[in-house]
Each structure stands twice: as C-alpha cells, then as structure tokens.
Write a structure and sequence with these properties.
The protein has six helices and seven strands. With 192 residues, it is α/β, with parallel strands linked by helices.
Length: 192
C-alpha cells in the first residue's frame, strides 16, 4: 500500500515520535574513535555531496540509485534505517555479524541512514562512532520519499527498517525487523 504524497513524510514523523531512540553512552563509557567508511569504490558508488566524520552524505536518491543496479557476482545487502528507529537500531548487530561471517567474500553490507539531515552531526555521526558499525554507513538527505521508495522496491510502503538484498537479477526485500543473524544470512544464502 502506498501512502498519498503528504502522508509519507507524516508517517516518518509519527515513526519518529513512536520509536524515538536517543542513543547515549552509558555513564563512564568512553567515546570510541571515529570510524571511517570502507571504500565504496568496489561498489561503483558515485562521489558523495559531502563527507561528515567519515560518513558519505548524498543529497538525492538519484546519486545512490546506481547501487541498486550493479550486476556482478557480489551480493548486496542494503538496509534503510535511522538512529531514532528502535527496531532499526536493534537489528544493527546482525549486520555487523554478517560482515564478520562473510569477510573476504563477495558480500557488501551498506546501511543507508534516513536520519534527518539536521541530525547527521549531532546524532548519526556520534552513533556510528560509539557503536563502531562494521558495514559501510552512508546518509541520504533526500526527504522526497514518495519519489524514490518504488525505485528501491514496489513492495515498500516507506516504513523502516527495510532491507533490500540482491545479486545480479535475484532480489529479496524485507519491510520488517531482522531478529537474528540467521535471518540476514538466509537473505544472502537465498541469493546464491
């Protein structure tokens, strides 16, 4: 089901209030060193509009859309998430485990943050640093969701978390939380 043009931004705002998650370090916890994103050259990713503390930022979806159409022998797992989305944050460790499980193999895990652009510096960058996320993290500042969600998957209503997995012509899409490392590994194995 697609939302009318004005409903999708409203639905994201409602998600913000419903699943608000302000990840803060626990008392006495030291801040982790900055983590730079792995090279995106292997995925033929275009140059970002800017880079903030090692996180490539893309102003429009068109700039990252080529990632959805790479036809080679690599499996791509692309997760759409935000720091304010509690279910999104809960599944991030499973993507870290996937990176470890397929180290040295042709599997690329990319986390596309849909955080609000005004929070890239104050929420997203500190979150990525504190959690030392292993997948490549990029930020998408394009809030015109109705213009591009169908380009990710016609099945996508716009809710997050959402995960697109593909290898060549084989595609899988999940618009739900991933609750175990086995679920995300099943996505990869289903594309082999």
């Amino acid at each position: 089901m697609k939302f009318p043009p004005t409903a999708l931004p409203l639905s994201f705002a409602l998600l913000l209030f419903t699943f608000s998650c302000n990840a803060q370090p626990e008392a006495g916890q030291q801040e982790a060193p900055a983590v730079s994103s792995p090279s995106l050259a292997a995925t033929a990713w275009p140059a970002p509009d800017t880079v903030l503390q090692g996180i490539p930022i893309y102003a429009t979806f068109d700039k990252i859309e080529p990632l959805l159409h790479i036809h080679n022998d690599t499996t791509y797992i692309i997760n759409f998430w935000a720091t304010w989305c509690a279910p999104c944050v809960a599944e991030l460790p499973h993507f870290d485990e996937l990176v470890d499980a397929y180290e040295g193999q042709k599997v690329r895990v990319i986390l596309v943050s849909l955080d609000f652009p005004r929070q890239f510096e104050t929420k997203l960058a500190p979150f990525v640093r504190e959690h030392q996320l292993k997948p490549t993290v990029v930020a998408l500042a394009d809030g015109r969701y109705n213009d591009w969600i169908d380009k990710v998957s016609p099945e996508w209503s716009g809710a997050i978390p959402a995960t697109l997995a593909y290898k060549g012509e084989k595609v899988a899409f999940l618009e739900q939380s991933i609750h175990s490392p086995e679920e995300v590994q099943a996505l990869v194995e289903g594309l082999q």
